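Appendix C. Worked example: YdcF family protein
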Amino acid sequence: MTDILFALSKILWFPARPGHFALIVGFVGLFMLWRGRRSGRWLVLASLGFFLMLVVTPVNQWMLLPLEDRFPRPAVAPAHVDGIIVLGGAVEQNITQDRGIPSLNGAAERMTEGVILANRYPNARIVFTGGQGSFVHGQVTEADVARQLWTAMGIPASRVIYEDAARNTHENAVNTFRLVQPRPGETWLLVTSASHMPRSMGVFRQAGWKDIVPWPVNYRTGHSWQVWYDAPFPERLGQFEWAFREWLGLIAYRLMGRTESVLPAREAAPAR
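Step 2, the predicted output written as structure tokens:
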């Protein structure tokens, strides 16, 4: 069942992706107009209206802000950390396989922050979790790319647990919990993009990580109009689609029982 859900999520996302969906609607409208059906003009206008909305308004920022503001970093960094978990999603395993050197994407701060924290907390255990998150992939996993990159950056391979089977956030949480078996009272940091942190915290708590500490990176929003209107159109579209996917993921995970609420609370519920 898990494999079916994974495949469906990847297949359905292609037409449901807002940019793709708007283009599909627009082309359907054009086809209707070509066939002499004037009602198609409303579909064309809806498609153009979506892209105009992204140009005129900072709707991409409005959708991301509640996600990125939900789990801020601790005001004071913990004096002692037992472990650090870095989620995959920041590497391009297919390009790495083709080119032979580690390739990173827009979430690269997950990887650089992992190195910073490893140096700050030299006695902490480190876990990188990421397998084959893409639907079409080669032989290289995200963990393979992380091992290659971090080893070159001076992090001994023996210090890191590379979990290479997880394909999504739910499997990140479950697989890592099985590997690590954290003890009560231990302090573990969770490193992922700020907009991905609500879903990550919800699913990690549900998997048994009751006291995990959020350590967000890769912020893409601000609270000033300069930030709201600074990004070019392609970046705005990308941010909107990422936010849409995160909100969709939060709802889906709640319906599947993988989180306790659509938008997890900042503080974990007390143990019963």
